[in-house]
Design goal:
The chain has 128 residues and is an alpha+beta fold. The chain is built from five helices and six strands. The protein folds into two domains: 57 residues, no CATH class; 63 residues, no CATH class. 53% of the residues lie in helices and 20% in strands. The strands form two sheets. The chain has a four-stranded mixed beta sheet with strand order 4-3-5-6. A two-stranded antiparallel ribbon has the order 1-2. Helix 1 crosses helix 3 and helix 2 runs antiparallel to helix 3. The longest helix is centred in the middle third of the chain and has 18 residues. It starts with a helix and ends with a helix.
Length: 128
């Protein structure tokens, strides 16, 4: 069995091979997973687990979720998207979610970064 360290190293190498101009190439990801699954090198399950995690994290890093208590106007949504694009780059995908439990304000998540300017977060932060 391949050591976890070797599996991580191999998976990172395969992941870097799937990047084209800094972006993840879906056809290369499919080719890598198909090749590893069919050839089944030593420790292939560990390699695929680490590889899948790296792909998931990269996809999350390029996806922004904008949550608001009420639907935002087009101009407000454009302003929020422009600000996120300025700080994280232009190749983001956006998802808008209306969550009335936020009470007011916005909550934005891009990958593992979260900006919570909602009224609910402020209320929860108050000392009891």
């Amino acid at each position: 069995m391949r050591s976890p360290r070797e599996a991580r190293k191999t998976a990172r190498s395969l992941f870097r091979g799937c990047l084209t101009a800094g972006r993840l190439d879906a056809s290369r990801v499919r080719a890598v997973t198909d090749t590893v699954a069919t050839e089944q090198p030593r420790g292939h399950l560990a390699i695929l687990q680490v590889f899948a995690r790296l792909v998931r994290l990269e996809l999350e890093r390029r996806h922004a979720v904008i949550e608001s208590a009420t639907p935002l106007s087009e101009s407000a949504m454009k302003e929020v998207r422009d600000e996120i694009t300025r700080s994280h780059g232009g190749d983001l995908t956006f998802e808008t979610v209306v969550r009335p439990d936020l009470i007011g304000g916005l909550r934005v998540r891009v990958g593992s970064d979260v900006w919570d300017g909602s009224v609910r977060a402020r209320l929860e932060a108050l000392p009891v």
